Predict the structure.
Amino acid sequence: MAVADEPVRMFNVAAIHQADDEIHLCEGELDGIILDQIGLPAVGLPGVNSWRNHHRRMLAGFNRVHV
């Protein structure tokens, strides 16, 4: 449901700055919202085919990334 030719963006990037040493990576924004609501810092991508190489750099520095 995204705008055509619009680049893929990671949802809830603020969680990257608020998380300690662990973060969760979800397929879908809703899953990210749910995890964040129960106290687990989470980001989301709109589908498995949305992963881009620069997303890895955004998650660098975490001891654990739960997928």
